[in-house]
Design a protein that fits this description.
Order of helices and strands of chain B: HHHHHHHH
Strand content of chain B: under 5%
Oligomer: heterodimer
Number of strands of chain B: 0
Largest sheet of chain A: 6 strands, mixed
Shape of chain A: globular
Strand order of the largest sheet of chain A: 6-7-8-3-9-10
Helix content of chain B: over 70%
Radius of gyration of chain A: 18 Å
Number of domains of chain B: 1
Number of helices of chain B: 8
Order of helices and strands of chain A: HEEEHEEHEHHHEHEHEEHH
Helix content of chain A: 40-55%
Number of strands of chain A: 10
Structural class of chain A: alpha/beta
Shape of chain B: flat
CATH topology of chain B: MetI-like fold
CATH architecture of chain B: Orthogonal Bundle
CATH class of chain B: Mainly Alpha
Structural class of chain B: mainly alpha
Bound molecules: adenosine-5'-triphosphate, magnesium ion
Largest interface: A-B, 23 and 17 residues
């Protein structure tokens, strides 16, 4: 193949992805390709389809047209493809979604045991490794409700890392947090980025975008309006809607 | 009028034994099948969902007494010779499975959607998603209603008397007929029911209050 060099480094590729909710067109011909190790920040006004887009990548949402490929695996609607892709893709939600009836350690050890068939001892070893990685190992025996929001979100990151994914998706990971806890979560994400993790982050933390993003993508009304390196994106946005959006965001911060 | 002595009391306790046994069988049988009903009711298969909804509607929409009759005489009609015991156990199991199924379906749906999503995102399959993530939370949510239904079921076992079962209420009736002291005898029977049901009810409402407080 002529483009095999590109294929080699492409981890995720979306082509002409379409998503409708009834008569509502949520994603319009989305094309997106993410290279290994690339960090992408996805921003845009509420309802623009950011969550829908990243949720399509790990098949939490289905698409009606176009194609999604992760690590060469085409999401073809088969459960085999869904399984394969979910093994490579970790996700962190705005509302943490930790399992409240399990300890922090159990939260982290569950998926390796059930999905990979890892023994409990090994799964817990893995869990401790990644809890250490997000600097929260000392809380391993606690229940989520006993932790602060920032701590819970770091546990959620560790839980996803325990599956040793190739890509991490973040859907507004700091939006539900009190301001004083935003930094500890962003710092964790920054350190993950430094380690070379491929990341797609839906966030309005523009400082984070400046610091780690290779590309900032702006969405509105289900379309990718503009994408650029952070320097260019913030300094000289081309599209009128991008300018308006940046104006609003920066006025808030 | 005859005395109500130790013998009479022992007879009542014999009846209580059957009452407890019927309730336990109904609860265990109903628990197992009710879990199945709840899982089918919250499954993705539309036909299965409709069928389980109809099953629930049928048993919630008809009196337990009628269900007992239909199973008791119906089973005999098909030509299967089962003991009264088995017939009544089947009837209570069917009845309880419909009610528990509906209670548990509600609590499965009450678990926040993010829980199933997080499980899905981690790659957990249906069995693990249910067993490890959803059901432990759903059962906790359902506890007050489940206990409330158990109390109803214990009281409902008195209907088994109609097909010849000498459970607690029927035993009371027999003793009352022998001693001509209906008020005393049924007073005692009532107290026995109360001693069993009230702590359960109390426990159930206590749980409910604690959970409401924790949710705040
Ligand atoms: N399950 C659904 N059913 C119907 N419409 C939906 C559904 N999920 C999302 N939508 C619609 O699709 C559009 C895009 O939603 P999405 O959640 O992707 O937006 P978003 O960019 O993530 O917004 P936010 O910043 O508020 O999170 C919204 O208008 C939303 O109302
Ligand atoms: Mg969103």
């Amino acid at each position: 193949m002529a483009n095999s060099v590109i294929d080699q480094s492409t981890l995720i590729s979306l082509e002409k992805v379409e998503r409708w909710y009834g008569a509502f067109h949520a994603l319009k011909a989305i094309d997106l390709s993410v290279r290994k190790g690339e960090k992408i920040v996805l921003c845009g006004p509420s309802g623009s389809g950011k969550s829908t887009l990243i949720r399509c990548i790990n098949a939490l949402e289905t698409i009606q047209d176009g194609s999604i490929t992760v690590e060469g695996q085409l999401l073809d609607g088969s459960s085999k493809a869904v399984d394969a892709i979910r093994r490579e893709v970790g996700m962190v939600f705005q509302s943490f979604n930790l399992f409240p009836h399990m300890t922090v350690l159990q939260n982290c050890a569950l998926a390796p045991m059930r999905v990979r068939g890892t023994s409990r001892a090994d799964a817990e070893k893995l869990a401790r490794k990644y809890l250490e990685r997000v600097r929260i190992l000392d809380q391993a025996e606690k229940y989520p409700a006993q932790l602060s929001g920032g701590q819970q979100q770091r546990v959620a990151i560790a839980r996803a890392l325990c599956m040793e994914p190739k890509v991490m998706l973040f859907d507004e990971p700091t939006s539900a947090l009190d301001p004083e806890m935003v930094k500890e979560v962003l710092d964790t994400m920054i350190s993950l980025a430094r380690d070379g993790m491929t990341m797609i982050c839906v966030t309005h933390e523009m400082g984070f975008a400046r610091q780690v993003a290779d590309r900032v993508i702006f969405m509105a009304s289900g379309e990718i309006i503009e994408e650029a390196e952070p320097e260019i994106f913030f300094k000289s946005p081309k599209h009128e809607r991008t300018k308006t959006f940046l104006g609003e965001i920066l006025a808030h911060h | 009028m005859g005395p109500v002595g130790a013998n009479e009391f022992l007879f009542l306790l014999q009846g209580l034994k059957w009452t407890a046994l019927l309730a336990v069988i109904g609860f265990i049988g109903g628990g197992i099948f009710g879990m199945l009903i709840a899982l089918i009711r919250s499954s993705r298969n539309a036909a299965a969902r409709t069928a389980s909804a109809a099953y629930i509607a049928l048993f919630q929409g008809t009196p337990l007494l009628m269900q007992l009759f239909v199973v008791y005489y119906g089973v005999a009609l098909i030509g299967i010779d089962v003991s009264a015991w088995l017939a009544v156990a089947i009837a209570f199991t069917l009845h309880a499975s419909a009610f528990l199924g509906e209670i548990w379906r509600g609590s499965i749906e009450a678990v926040p959607k993010g829980q199933a999503e997080a499980a899905n995102a981690l790659g957990l399959h249906y069995v693990s998603r249910m067993k490890d993530v959803i059901l432990p939370q759903a059962l906790k949510i359902s506890m007050p209603a489940t206990i409330g239904f158990l109390v109803q079921l214990i009281k409902g076992t008195s209907l088994a008397a109609i097909v010849g079962f000498i459970e607690l209420a029927r035993a009371g009736q027999i003793i009352s007929n022998q001693t001509y002291r209906p008020l005393l005898v049924f007073g005692i029977v009532g107290v026995i029911y109360f001693i069993i049901c009230w702590p359960l009810s109390h426990f159930g409402t206590g749980l409910e209050k604690r959970m409401a407080k924790a949710a705040r």
